[in-house]
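I hope you will forgive my troubling you with a question about protein structure. The record follows directly beneath this note:
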Amino acid sequence: QVQLVESGGGLVQPGGSLRLSCTGPTSIFRSHEMHWYRQAPGKQRELVASITSGGTENYADSVKGRFTILMDNPRRMMYLKMNNLTSEDTAVYYCNAEFRGPKLEAIDEHWGQGTKVTVSS
């Protein structure tokens, strides 16, 4: 099983910024749709940001305008730049890569281990 690896989590003050990183195989970064998910304590995992292999970005309403998903394929890196963080952003953040077939069936999927972000004063 191919493993994605996240890093960059930690403790940050409200209003602060943080950049999360995710790395994996070149083949995945070039062909898969990439996502950032998060799971807050006691809550369901939610999708916060995604980017297609063509570069189209989508964001959850709760993070729109504050978070930016970035790809650096030559370096096999994906980033989530988070600005103006609030306590509501406290969660474990996961990177995900998904490849779908012609009928949008799941063909390949990979997850990272997660990195914890705590926003607190």
Summary: The first strand starts at residue 5 and ends at 7. The two ends are 39 Å apart (CA to CA).
